[in-house]
Amino acid sequence: MLKDDLLSSLRQKGLSEPIINAFLKVKREDFVPDHLAPYVYEDISLPIEVGSTISQPSTVAFMLNLLDLKQGQKILEIGSGSGYSLALMSEIIKDGKIYGVELIERLAIKSKTLLANDSNIEVINRSGLQGLPEFAPYDRILISASCPNKEYLSPFIEQLKDTGILVAAVHQSIWQIKKEKSVLTEKEFPGFVFVPLIKDFKESKE
């Protein structure tokens, strides 16, 4: 699949122009191993490091759409991996601050290097199971690796601003949780596949 074909497919899904434009401008090939270049614009996940993957573009776009990103927001991504979603979010919000938390050191270093010229983004190499409380609260939180159950979301919900939105992979569903006046509104979208966040917990204990 060519990049134009991918963009056309995303448009057919009814995604906003800011999201489409971000996928146009951000080069996915920069975030995957060179030997996978022939597959870079296929709508599939691709392996990157130590069992991690870069999610398929349509899944990333769907999650970004649920986040309802706005300019000037403060955003947290847990399991930021290669940095692809960080770059897309930065392109969408134009200005603001985005924190990416990634446990795997090699991925964190690579993504820091790739994104070094983007002043919106800061990549932090550590476990993300407790979020990033020192910079909370956040307008938006994205959890890109799968939590085993919704109980894992508690620290992230606490770090979410009132009127904030959390989008998280839980088991094999995507959940959108909106917080308003301390009341949570939840929607579940099943049928997805993610690398498990529980690996973060196991590795952090080794």
Descriptive notes:
The protein is α/β, with parallel strands linked by helices. The chain has a single domain (3-205), classed as Rossmann fold, CATH 3.40.50.150. It has helices spanning 3-12, 17-25, 57-67, 84-93, 105-114, 154-158, 198-205, and strands at residues 46-47, 53-54, 74-78, 97-102, 121-125, 138-147, 160-170, 173-180, 183-190. Strands 5-4-3-6-7-8-9 form a seven-stranded mixed β-sheet. Strands 1-2 form a two-stranded antiparallel sheet. Strand 4 (97-102), helix 5 (105-114) and strand 5 form a beta-alpha-beta unit. The longest helix has 11 residues, at 57-67. The radius of gyration is 16 Å and the shape is globular. It starts with a helix and ends with a helix.
Largest sheet: 7 strands, mixed
Shape: globular
CATH architecture: 3-Layer(aba) Sandwich
Strands of the widest sheet, in order across it, are 5-4-3-6-7-8-9
Helix content: 25-40%
CATH C-level: Alpha Beta
How many helical stretches? Answer: 7
Compact overview of the structure:
The protein is α/β, with parallel strands linked by helices and 206 residues long. The termini are far apart. Residues 200-206 have low confidence and may be disordered.
Could you give the topology of this structure?
Blueprint: H1 3-12, H2 17-25, E1 46-47, E2 53-54, H3 57-67, E3 74-78, H4 84-93, E4 97-102, H5 105-114, E5 121-125, E6 138-147, H6 154-158, E7 160-170, E8 173-180, E9 183-190, H7 198-205
Parallel strand pairs: 3-4, 3-6, 4-5, 6-7
Antiparallel strand pairs: 1-2, 7-8, 8-9
Helix pairs in contact: 1-2, 2-4
